[in-house]
Amino acid sequence: MKKLAKTTIDQIEKVFDVPTGYRRAHARGKSYKARFIANGSASHLTVAPHFQKGETAAFVRFSHFSPDPTWADAMSPVKGMAVQFLLPDGEMTNIVGVTSPVFFAKTPEIFSEMLGVVKSFKKGKPSLKELVSLLADYPESGAMLNNIRKMQAPSSFSTGQYHSIHAFYLISQQSQKQPIKYLWEPENGVETLSPLDAIALPVGFFEADMEDRIAKGPVKFQLDVIIGQSEDPTDDPTKEWPKTRERLTVGYLEITEKAPEAEGILFDPTVMTAGLECSEDRILNFRHHAYEISHQRRMSET
Ligand code: HEM
């Protein structure tokens, strides 16, 4: 997997012309300090320390998905929210979410093949011909590619709904495994921009908007876990679980101030703690290697 991860990062650098020192995806973003207040409602499902009733310090990074930091805010309709929980004894765990419920590739091999088809994103988007060819060759990618075509960016980082996409397991005191997916719900309510409004936005609008909001008080999100059933796939990020699944609110995140020192952090979605396990989703486990390589490269460049 590590070899394919290196090839994939090389491909991203070529397709997007990534400048040195930046993340190889979600290049432009801003980091903040936060606290997570767990309500204890998941304590029968997991022994994870941050899900027991109480407060945990956290870092949060909001980002625009493009590996090219110069893209306008509107050209990256998918926004990211990466949260690192700072646990006792210097341990940490991450939840990395985006404003899409699904990913477009089921396996790392397909992701890499698709990058090979889309030769260049440098003008901002692939040509119609390239998209049609992707949809014909990779029908399971249709859900996300169609979503992206229709997708409206949130009006602010603080009004997006952020999905973990992958499944994870909560592990109880009795070693029982409950498959879940994470969903961050904005306290300000979900609000999207029309494509025309989005195009009119200046570069860096989202970052400036967060600064204004935080100056007035904490920006808040609710963390829900979606409870998976035995028939829900835990290994396929191209499939959304039925919307009727039970949701459990496990706590609230309050984002309080800027944290420039957190910009260099590696938000690896596979870093777990006791009480949590990664699912068998191959894209999730591949991300561990891809993020490590990207982090090593960007840190060695700065
Ligand atoms: C084959 C699949 C994927 C690859 C190769 C990939 C690659 C990357 C890379 C290289 C980075 C920069 C890491 C760093 O330098 O710290 C990154 C960041 C990120 N990715 Fe992915 N990614 C993949 C799938 C996903 C999925 C499914 C999600 C949805 C949850 C996602 C969400 C994010 C977010 C939010 C960030 C920014 C994290 C931060 O703020 O540091 N990625 N990705």
From TrEMBL:
<dbReference type="InterPro" id="IPR024168">
    <property type="entry name" value="Catalase_SrpA-type_pred"/>
</dbReference>
<keyword id="KW-0349">Heme</keyword>
<keyword id="KW-0560">Oxidoreductase</keyword>
<keyword id="KW-0575">Peroxidase</keyword>
<dbReference type="InterPro" id="IPR011614">
    <property type="entry name" value="Catalase_core"/>
</dbReference>
<dbReference type="Pfam" id="PF00199">
    <property type="entry name" value="Catalase"/>
</dbReference>
<keyword id="KW-0408">Iron</keyword>
<keyword id="KW-0479">Metal-binding</keyword>
<dbReference type="InterPro" id="IPR018028">
    <property type="entry name" value="Catalase"/>
</dbReference>
<dbReference type="InterPro" id="IPR020835">
    <property type="entry name" value="Catalase_sf"/>
</dbReference>
<protein>
    <submittedName>
        <fullName>Catalase</fullName>
    </submittedName>
</protein>
<comment type="similarity">
    <text>Belongs to the catalase family.</text>
</comment>
<feature type="domain" description="Catalase core">
    <location>
        <begin position="1"/>
        <end position="302"/>
    </location>
</feature>
